[in-house]
Amino acid sequence: MPNEFLKSELLAPVPLHAQVRERIRERILDGSYAIHAQLPPESTLCALFGVSRITVRQALGDLHKEGLIFKVPGKGTFVAKPKAFQELTQLEGFAQAMARLGHSIRNVVAGHSAVPASAAVAQQLGIATGTHVSEIRRIRCLNGEPLSVECTYLPLHIGERLRSADLAQRDIFLILENDYGIQLGHADLRIDAVAADAALAEALRVAEGSAILRIERLTHSVAADGSAVPLDFEYLYFRGDAFQYRLRINKD
């Protein structure tokens, strides 16, 4: 005779392994299974949910693929530290997005200087190669741990104004909009993966060669006539083990 779990769930046309997966997920997200805590053995989960070992293994396999759990050979299955994430449905600063989710953000300004624009930066900003631009390098720390390295290129006159801004605490986007009255429009993004070189590895406290999520983002301002003007070009390097971008797309 099915237990109470099965009694309540057999009415729903959802595979058993998916039901078990969601129950375990709920316990992870509500803290019942704490970060780095060991999950109960498969036999215990089978008894808890009244399902077969195959069903439990399917559920755990799904959670492992999502990064919610990890396995240590010979020791068992443990709860992984959840990744921070940012939605790609709107243009906003990183700190703004993380603060809304309850995270603490601190920025370490690693450099702020005038440099000749490389061919790649010049092409993005629509200027001649070698034209001086402001380069701002920051290490973004999430809840006290380094999460990303951000390299921003801006027209020199804007970058010089930012020298007096509190870049350790505030998003550049918010300063541009709220303090300088610059209307931001759209951004074009390119996302790929790279291996951490020595400098990135040291800044992010990861092993050299670790997978790093790289984003190239070109943000445009809106001119008086409504046209888009390249304003802010960035290279963003995120720890692949601690961060993800999320996006919902519709069929039509």
Automatic annotation (TrEMBL):
The keyword rRNA-binding does not apply. SMART domains: HTH_GNTR, UTRA. Residues 14-82 form the HTH gntR-type domain. One of its GO terms (molecular function) is DNA-binding transcription factor activity. Keywords: DNA-binding, Transcription, Transcription regulation. Gene3D superfamilies: Chorismate lyase-like (3.40.1410.10), Winged helix-like DNA-binding domain superfamily/Winged helix DNA-binding domain (1.10.10.10). Coiled coil: none annotated. InterPro entries: Bact_HTH_transcr_reg, Chorismate_lyase_/UTRA_dom_sf, Tscrpt_reg_HTH_GntR, UTRA, WH-like_DNA-bd_sf, WH_DNA-bd_sf. Pfam families: GntR, UTRA. One of its GO terms (biological process) is negative regulation of DNA-templated transcription. This is UTRA domain-containing protein.
